[in-house]
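Table S2 (continued). Query chain:
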Amino acid sequence: MKQSITYLLATVLGATLLGACSDSSDSDDDNGGGNGGGGGTPTVEIRSNPPSDYARVDRMGQPAVATALLRGGGQPIRDSVPINNNADNERDSLNQGDPSGDADFAGAFVDTLIFVNNALADDLDSLGLSRCATGAPGEIDSADDINACLGVAAPVVIPDVVTLDISSPSSWPNGRHPDDPVVDRVLAAVLLDLSVHPLDLFADLPLNPPGNDARPDDVSPANFPYLRDPIAMP
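Corresponding output:
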């Protein structure tokens, strides 16, 4: 059973990563500023412009929200998706928008979750896992069919920000530790009945590396700033 679940997760994650890679945009080879690479003292300019003078170009809240739930470059933008900052795809539109407007993307989020739950329902059933979606495989086609899944996911991703309740233990979705298996937990939250299965069901499978790829036995420090020592150049 573990091998079957591992194969299922690898398929889902592979599709997600391929979607993210296909959406990459071109960038200049020279990312440095005019004052930083030629020696001498760099110039620092501190501006006092109001926020309205700037346009947000990217942001990061919860893991994989834009990558997994929204369409990337070259794919048609759904009518329900608002366009922020003249973005030409759904992912950029979310990233360039403000979290206060994230509820406007709910229709697209729901459409994608319906599709994913319907596509994987027969696989989850064959593995003996309890789904959060109702309905037979191939017949999950409405928000009502994934109501339980949405009840878990919606409060976490709308708005797409990281929240922390300091009165409760911290680990995603309450805050986020550098080593939290966030994508595994996201998949469990949107696919499984969490009254039956633990949130870490997928994370506990022997699918992930034991730690940092370069230093497998290394874990992030427990104290601020929670960063490992840099890896020495060979």
